[in-house]
Sequence to fold (146 residues):
Amino acid sequence: MKEMTLKELALPLIKAIDSFNYLLRSHHRRTAYICYCLGKQLNLSHEQMIDLVIAASLHDIGALSVQERDTLVQEDVDNPEPHCRMGNRMMATFKVFNNIARIIKHHHIRYDEADKYDEEILFQSYIVYLADRVDIYIAPDSFILN
Fold:
């Protein structure tokens, strides 16, 4: 049996997620790229970078309905918790995705709100939150440096 890398496993999932909704087309790839750039600037370890980029690539996997996916492109998501919990449950079934599942579970928690939660929140969750919001705020049809 051939060994499969995490990248080989994650890429088809990323493409599938992005193809479900035209509003989110390439959103996960852009979010992953922003996370990659931020992670490099923060000097994250190789393992932290792998978890960060894969989690960013799959962060909305728990949004199962088209309606739920449509709400994710809003500037402020009213109730992001259901898709975060579902994404966590889906990814936690794979042992190699344990940290990725934890990052996905908390990817809508802002750093300044962390004290409201009893469980440990991985730092990469905050990076995904920031990258996700940056991608949502950028208008795809305008030059962002204006």
Q: What stands out?
A: The two ends are 52 Å apart (CA to CA). The first helix runs from residue 6 to 19. DSSP finds seven helices and no strands in the chain. The chain has a mean pLDDT of 83.
